Task: structure prediction
Amino acid sequence: MEITVTLTDKEMHFLTRIASELSALQKKENTLQDALHECIRMALYDESEEQ
Result:
């Protein structure tokens, strides 16, 4: 599935920083899409912890 998302500059900066941090940890290049998937994964994990 493909969707289009409009991001603010602040959101773009955040995802760029996450992608950079993931790249350093995983020793491979990560994209903004990878960073977005990681944020969603973390949010899903956090939500399931509360239940």
In short: The two ends are 28 Å apart (CA to CA). The longest helix spans residues 9-26. Residues 40 and 46 are 10 Å apart (CA to CA).
